[in-house]
Amino acid sequence: MKKLFSTRYTENSIAFSLLLLRLALGILMIPHGFSKLTKFTTVVKEFPDPIHLGATVSLSLVIFAEFFCAVLLVAGLMTRLVVIPLIITMGVAVFMIHNSDFFGEAEQATLYLAGYLVLLVAGPGKVSMDRMLGN
Questions:
Q1: For 69, which of 47, 61, 82, 84 could close a Cys bridge (C-beta 3.0–4.6 Å)?
Q2: 70-79 burial by CB neighbour count: b if 16+ within 10 A, else e?
Q3: Would the pLDDT of 1 be above 80?
C-alpha cells in the first residue's frame, strides 16, 4: 500500500513503463496498417489526400508508418527514428483529417500522438533492440 502513494521511482520501473508503452502503441497500431496494406487497391480509391501528394503516395506513407514503423517500434529498433513517421501520420490525422476534434473523432489519434511524442523524448528504454545493439 505504501508503494502506491510513493512519489519515488526506480530506473527499472521507468524501463518497464517504456516497454509497456512501446508494446501497446506498436501492437495496437499494426492492425491499422496491415488492413490498409492488404486492402490497398480498395482503400486507395477513397483515401484522403491531405498533403496533396496523391492518394496512392499518401496511403503508402501511412502504411509505412502504421505497419512497418509500428513493427520496428515493438522490437525497439531505431525507436526515435520510427516514431517520427508515426507522429507525422497521427498529427495529420488529428489536425487535418479530424479538424483538431480532440475529444471527438480525433481522440484515438490524439492518444497515439501523445504516446509517440513521449517515446520520441524518452527513447526506447532498457528493454529494446536499440539498447542491445548500443552495448
A1: 82
A2: bbbbbbbbbb
A3: no
Residue 134 has pLDDT above 90, yes or no: no
With CA atoms as reference, report the closest residue to 24 among 131, 121, 108.
108
Domain count of the fold of the chain: 1
**Distance in angstroms (rounded) separating the CA atoms of residues 100 and 108:** 12
Q: Residue 68 domain-assigned?
A: yes
* 2 in a structural domain: no
pLDDT band at 6 (very low <50, low <70, confident <90, very high): confident
Answer whether residue 100 is part of any domain: yes
Give the Cα separation of 99 and 23 in Å (integer): 28
**Can you tell me which residue has the cell 513521449?**
118
Give me the domain span that covers residue 64. 29-134
